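Hi Y.,

Following your request, here is the sequence exactly as I used it, all 321 residues.
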Amino acid sequence: MILILEDNTYDESFDHVVDWLIHLKSRFYRLNINDIISGKIPLELDNVENKLIIDGIDFQSEVNVVWYRRFYPQHAIENLTIQMRADLRGEVNHLIECIFSVLRNKKWYPDFSNITVNKILILEKAASFGLTVPKSYVVNNITTLNEVRTRIGDLIMKPINFCGYHSDGDKVSTAYTIKLDDHKIKELEKSFFPTLVQQQIKAKFEIRSFYIDEAFYSTAIVCSERQHSDIKLDVNSGNANSVPFELPSLIKEKLIEFMNDIDLNTGSIDLIVDQNDQFFFLEVNPIGQFIAPSNRCNFDIDMKIAQLLTYQDEKQYERVI
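Below is the corresponding structure, written out as tokens. Let me know if you'd prefer a different format.
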């Protein structure tokens, strides 16, 4: 059986892949972490006996493949202090860790131990495999920022870690990559929260490459007139076009070695190609989105994921029997 781990976060890729799993008559179960926390479905967990029964199903014996999309707890309980909420979050995090431990010998996409990556450390690792990366610094004061800018030229600023969406009434906000021009720098305080800054690469085009089991589905995003430093803000404009792109063999080889070293069998890889046709590795997101580039370039990634999950499930099942 294929186990799909999810939460209440909107992710259209779930339904696309599930539609294909239904079409393929594959055995699968969608497990939402909030259904466990709320008690909507029964749970019995015994890590000593390596036993996990959820909704009456023995997951240890039935599950062969795990597709992890998201599994973040979002169950809110009213009238709790901040400390109580923190304590409950700690309880849930340890519960999730125990569930993953019971399923540790299953085939994972991606492996639960590599669901999150450190953006800065990943750049260091990518460089060690011969991939070119932007010069990157973490700074927390205007003096150091200006010194870095003097040394390497134009800078962009981005979060060190992933930044989600924040709701406030009818408004939603998030953090994007922005260029640190003179105006932006003048708005900064003398000291500020530690922030990641990178050299700005003058892009010829950017690449979003979905990677799974050493296969690449790459989209080049060509923008005739950039309005923003973050391509996500331009991709739906009339100035941007998405076209299928074949990565050079040498870049593929380095990326495969890099992904194997960090034990990631899937993820969304961001690259940028400068005016001199040099490829820069930007980052990898183990659970990155793939539906939009897949639809624009007719990759049918949702179908291919469903086929891969089904194949792995059947292969593991045949091995057991």
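The chain has a mean pLDDT of 88.

Thanks again,
Q.
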